[in-house]
Design a protein that fits this description.
Layout lengths: L18 E9 L6 H12 L6 E7 L6 H11 L3 E6 L5 H11 L2 E6 L11 H8 L5 E5 L7 H19 L11 E4 H4 L12 H7 L4 E5 L17 H17 L4 H27 L9 H33 L7 E6 L1
């Protein structure tokens, strides 16, 4: 029978016995896929000698997924369902799953049946070779070439160059983590796609293995070009964290020094025009505009990075989660 817990008591996950494996699955409008996915997982896990749980995190679905999950939670003893109060995004859904996971190993996968649960034993075996994170590589990806594959390849190349972690497929949700690794990381924005880079910053040993990928059977993709701006901003954040998290003065000091040198040179040039050549320098609006735009750009960039650091400090110092759970369902 599914249990209904007071949302006020769910600010932190309950302390329970440890398991070998936790499967974390963010769900958003996937009611047709859920029963089949859970059935395939059960078939894959049954012959394996692992104690495990499946954590489905519903991220504010509106299509009937909640009702399907409620029923599955009654029937499936391995299933736990987290119902978030609204749609927070995939990063928050994954963070919720990580917080509530009891497994020593955490494997994430999508709820749309495109990731193959049959790859779970391979991920576990690879992790046992001494790695902290095993990332799936959709080598034969079953998506549209123009709208999905080409942008993905470009994004993976850029992310690899910026972060220094060169893997083929940052966007693959099928990944295996040691639990202590993800519990040391705090996720915001769209940072779930940069987990390998964040893990690398923490000194994790990372590898990549080819995994199966299936064409979508039900519903429509939740990904689109509208995420590009957010991904770029988060990429800048990850780059800043990798290079300057413990030494922000290096970047701010350099920009400030360059700005001061530019101001001194311009001031010297204008002083020369005024004193040596007797020219008027008070009627140069274009020069004033250029200086204002330059200073405004530097200030906005610095404010953005400082605000990111302040936001992280605010959340982490208060242990404040980026999600709110309405209800936990567990048999």
């Amino acid at each position: 029978m599914a249990t209904m817990l007071d949302p006020k008591s769910l600010e932190a996950p309950p302390i329970q016995e440890s398991l070998d494996l936790s499967l974390v699955i963010p769900i958003y409008n996937e009611y047709e896929s859920i029963p089949r996915l859970l059935r395939v997982i059960a078939e894959v896990m049954e012959p394996l000698d692992y104690s495990y749980e499946v954590i489905c995190v519903d991220d504010g679905s509106t299509d009937g997924s909640v009702e399907v999950l409620r029923q599955q939670a009654i029937e499936n003893p391995h299933l736990a369902v987290l119902l978030l109060r609204r749609n927070y995004g995939q990063t928050a859904a994954m963070a919720a799953g990580f917080d509530y996971a009891r497994g020593q190993v955490i494997i994430t996968l999508d709820g749309d049946l495109q990731n193959d649960p049959a790859d779970i034993p391979m991920l576990m075996n690879t992790l046992d070779e001494g790695y902290d994170l095993v990332s799936g590589w959709r080598k034969h990806r079953q998506d549209d070439q123009i709208t999905r594959l080409l942008p993905s390849k470009i994004a993976n190349w850029i992310i690899g160059r910026v972060t220094g972690v060169s893997i083929h497929d940052y966007g693959c949700s099928l990944k295996a983590y040691r639990a202590e690794l993800v519990r040391d990381m705090n996720l915001y924005g769209e940072l779930h796609r940069f987990l390998p880079a964040l893990a690398f910053i923490e000194g994790a040993r990372i590898t990549e293995v080819p995994v199966n990928h299936h064409a979508r059977q039900f519903g429509a993709s939740k990904y689109g070009l509208g995420r590009t701006f957010r991904v770029v901003m988060d990429l800048l954040t990850v780059y800043f964290m990798k290079r300057f998290l413990t030494k922000p003065m290096y970047v701010f000091g350099l920009m400030g020094l360059l700005s001061m040198v530019g101001g001194v040179l311009l001031g010297g040039y204008l002083t020369f025009l005024k004193l040596a050549l007797g020219q008027s320098i008070g009627d140069r609006p274009l020069l004033i505009l250029a200086i204002v735009l330059l200073l405004a750009g530097i200030q906005l960039l610095c404010f953005g990075l400082l605000a990111e650091l302040l936001m992280r400090t605010y959340h982490e110092s208060q242990n404040r989660p980026i999600y709110r759970v309405r209800q936990v369902l567990r048999r």
